[in-house]
Every structure is written in C-alpha cells, then in structure tokens.
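Consider a typical record:
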Amino acid sequence: MFMADIAGVRVLYTGDYSREEYCHLCAAEIPQFSLYFNSEKMAKTIRRLAEKTLEVGESVSGLLVKKAFTCQIMALDDLHVFLQLSTENISQRITIAYNGAFGVLKHRLKQIFESVESLPDEESEGLAFRVHERLTVKYESEKHISLHWRSDPISDMVSDSVIISILLILILITSYC
C-alpha cells in the first residue's frame, strides 16, 4: 500500500495479491505540515570525568558514547565498566606429530621467515627456537613438536603459516619414504 499524488489528487494504492482488480481509493485530505527538531545536543560527563567541575569553555577529553538518545563522555579507562566486558590475553599451544629432524624444520623455516632464532637451553628447557619473536617451536619428543604463542592477529598469522610449513615438510618426508 502506498500513497501517490496524481494530477494534484492524492490516491491511496492498495495492491493486494488477490485476483480481483486493483482498488484505487481517494485519500482523505491531509494538510501540509512540517516538523522542527532542536539540534542542540547535550553530553554528560560520567565517572572519572565527572569528578572535576568544568568551567564554561573548558575542554574535556574522553570517549563519546551514545545510548538511548543520550550522550555521555567518559574516560577511556572507564569503558570496561560501561560495557561490562573484560579483555584477556590468550596463550595458545598446539602439539603436532612430527617425526622428522628438528634441524631440518628450523632450516626450512629460516628459508621462509626473516627471523628464526634459537633459544637458550635454560629458557626453553631443551631444543627450541622462536619465529619472528612471536612463536616458539619446541622439540617435545622424537615424535612431537609443540608451538606456543600469545594470540593476536599477527601471531595467529605467523602460527598458521608455520603449521602449514610443518605439514608440507611432513608430506615431503612421507613421499620420499
């Protein structure tokens, strides 16, 4: 259903999906009207920013949050209270069955990545190396290696490419045997 203005006459068009012919009804005369809105906005400071009284013309720095037609300015440190969310650091670990030589893996990863550095024995408790200072590859046993990293977009991307490289090396090892 919609309203159309045809030759100065307002017509209400109702197009139901029945097999009857369409019905055109003349609309009631509706007078022209206009709506005016107050464009002035007010934002209230809350929590830490509200502790200090501001003078007229004094600026405040914070985060503007709009919620339910109200505006509030808060300190960035107060955002977790407003959102009721917390952030955490996630450490990820994956263990992969790997029966190849650990030196071969390190050599192949050095060919792919710029930064592959051995870790001292006291820090890694055995054979280990770090890729791009983000991912630690550790020799667990003759049949397993493990990868350790803190989750963030770049570290996840590096870990994905290292995992794929390890799987490709495993495919090459099994195809030659």
Observations:
- The mean pLDDT is 79.
- Helices lie at 79-83, 102-112, 121-124, 153-176.
- The first helix runs from residue 79 to 83.
- The two ends are 74 Å apart (CA to CA).
